[in-house]
Structures are given as structure tokens and as C-alpha cells.
Amino acid sequence: MKTLQLKIENLYVLIVELNQPASRNAINSIMMQELKDLWEKEIPQNPHLRCVILTGNDKAFCAGADLKERQNISLDTWQEQHLALQHAMRGQINCPIPVIAAVNGAAFGGGLEIALACDFIYAATEAKFAQSEVKLGIMPGAMGTQNLPRACGMRRAKELSYTGEPFSAEQAYEWGIVNKIFPLDQLMLETIKTANLIADNAPLAIRQVKKSINSSLTLDMTNGYQFELQAYKQLLPTKDRIEGIEAFNKKRKPVFTGK
User: Structural domains in the chain?
Assistant: First the structure.
């Protein structure tokens, strides 16, 4: 891939680095298509994966859309390019395994939206964020109006989206947008540590937990509990369930195979 660098960490963890340093990892038409291919093709073709880390290079996480590329393009071209991003965002939120954002620098506009579409976010203390599209005459178009209020609440999301003003990693942590913040030189180490903790757990159970938690956003408590019970029952016949109970009783670390 031209705009993404992929690296396997400890067999089960995929690190995806946005890699366009000249433009601070701005999202151009190539990146839109490659993100689409990542979620729709690359990850489904690697069933051994148990966690994904999404990060940027050493200058930024993602500065948002590549506005130089979008200058003077036709409306049809704009919409055609954005269609690939729409597929990419749907693919990302539907990814069956956990996705962690490691925000190492600026995450503005679409960059913040990509981070918000992850299951949770770790950030460097130096990171900056903004839902800044209104300053350009447009609005979030990569699920920002859906994921930001789910992270920080309706009123805070409106304030951030109406003003477009940047906010710090510390503020993002205080508002519930970011789970943890670390010095930049520790960010990837800590994110990989968490990804490995996830990867050590039963992968089928993790997938069912993710589906069940996500269902809580659209189902009432009664129907949500029914969804949870169905997800729970699907784990009972698995070899991993047998392995987990046996390992606990024999006081050893379980070895999960995803079966």
C-alpha cells in the first residue's frame, strides 16, 4: 500500500500506520481506497488477527482531508472519492476484532473521525484534536456526528463541532474521548501492551463482547439482554470455553485457539 504501512506484532496484533508524512497523513483519494481495502479485504483475509492498532507516523496522526487534492475538483469526483471513505468507515466500525487508536499527534477533522471509529483511543500528551469541518464550509462526513456525542455527550459534541476549535489530549481525556494519555515515547509501547492483553484472551469471546456492547447503542435493556444471552450461548460449545475453565482449575495460563 502507498499510504498505509502494515506490521504484524506478536502474530495476533496488526499495526496500521497512516504514512503520508509530507501532508501530515492527510486523507487523499488513494488513502480512502486503501482504508476501504484494509477493512474489507486485508483484515478479513487474516483470521488469526485478534487486535488492530491504528496510528500515524512521527509527525501527526491525521490532519484530515487532503484539501490540496480537493481544490477545483468536480462535485461528481468529490462524491466518488468520498464514497470509498464511506465504505472504509463502515468497514472499520464493523470490524469484528478490537481496534485501538494510538493518536501520536494532530487528529483534525477526518483524522479525529477515524480515531473515534476505533473501539477506544490512547493518545500522546502532545496530541491535538479538532472536529473542524465547519471552518471549511462542510461538516463531518466520516461518522463524526455519530461517534463524538457517544464519546463525550451531546452538549460537548455540539460545542466542539459548532466551534471547530482544537482541544488538547488532557481535555480529550477529561471529556471521555480518550481513555489514557502517555508521553509520546511510551504511547506505542503502552498501546501494544494493551493489544497483547486483548490478544491473550479468548478471541471468540472478545468478538461476542464487542458485538454485544455495540448492540447496547441501539437496543433497549430488555432486547439488549436478549442479544447478550444469544452471544453468550454461542460460546458454550467452543473449545476455548473448555480450555479457559480447565486452565483456571489447573492454575495455568490458557492457550486459546479461536475454536
Answer: 4-199 (3.90.226.10), 202-249 (1.10.12.10)
Lookup: cell for 134 = 465547519
Digit-coded pLDDT (tens) for 27-54? 999 999 999 999 999 999 999 999 999 9
Residues acting as catalytic residues: 65, 110, 113, 133
The answer to whether 16 touches 52, Cβ cutoff 8 Å, is yes
Sheet-wide strand order for 128-130: 107-108, 128-130, 167-168
DSSP states of 114-180: HHHTSSEEEEETT-EEE--GGGGT----SSHHHHHHHHH-HHHHHHHHHH---EEHHHHHHTTS-SE
The DSSP code for 183 is -
Please give the model's pTM, rounded to 2 decimal places.
0.95
Confidence at 95, pLDDT banded by 50, 70, 90: very high
pLDDT digits (tens, 9 = 90+) for 100-131: 999 999 999 999 999 999 999 999 999 999 99
46 CB contacts (<8 Å, ≥6 apart)? Answer: 14
Instruction: Tell me the mean pLDDT in the region 244-251.
Output: 96
CA distance 156 to 108: 17
Give the single-character DSSP code of 40.
Answer: I
Q: What is the dihedral of CA 15, 140, 95, 91, to 10 degrees?
A: -100
Nearest to 108 by CA among 19, 46, 27: 27
The pLDDT of residue 58 is above 90: no
In angstroms, rounded to a whole number, what is the distance separating the alpha carbons of residues 55 and 61?
Answer: 6
Question: How many residues does this entry show for the chain?
Answer: 259
For residue 77, the surrounding DSSP H or E stretch is helix 75-93
- Residue 220 DSSP SS3: coil
